[in-house]
Amino acid sequence: MLYHTELLRDSPSFSTIQLTALQFGHQIYKAMLSYMQPEDGLEYQTTAPEYPAAEQLQTEQCYKQNKERRIARLFLFKPLKIKQEYVTLALGKCHRHFSIMDG
């Protein structure tokens, strides 16, 4: 593998280099790399939020089981009140519309 580097810009603050990788005479990779001197200026990056350690998180299987239990408690063990209406559309066709009522 042959690497070819080309200095595109070199100034006191910024440098840009183009890197080309050749294999058997064919280009297989090309990258443009930019570097700059650290300097004071505006900071746009926010601080990273705090997360628990990986060992403290529940497994995917446990998460799915808990989710299934919550869904079952919300929907399967409560009778649903269903409201049925007939809706006439612009073309004169009549369709039934069902909606779940709160409460």
Would you mind describing this structure in some detail?
- By secondary structure, this protein is α+β, with helices and mostly antiparallel strands.
- It has one helix and five strands.
- It has a domain at 2-36.
- Helices cover 17% and strands 45% of the residues.
- β1 and β2 (14-23) form a beta hairpin.
Number of DSSP strand runs? 5
Name the average pLDDT. Answer: 81
Shape: elongated
The side-by-side strand order for the widest beta sheet comes to 1-2-3
Decide which structural class fits the backbone: alpha+beta
Radius of gyration: 31 Å
Uncertain regions spanning at least 5 consecutive residues: none
Terminal residue distance: 70 Å
Largest sheet: 3 strands, antiparallel
- One letter per element, helices H and strands E, the order comes to EEEHEE
Task: Name the helicity range.
Answer: 10-25%
Please state roughly what percent of the residues sit in beta strands, choosing from under 5%, 5-15%, 15-25%, 25-35%, 35-45% or over 45%: 35-45%
Number of helices in the DSSP assignment: 1
Layout of secondary structure:
Elements (H helix, E strand, L loop, with lengths): L1 E9 L3 E10 L2 E11 L23 H17 L4 E8 L5 E8 L2
Antiparallel strand pairs: 1-2, 2-3, 4-5
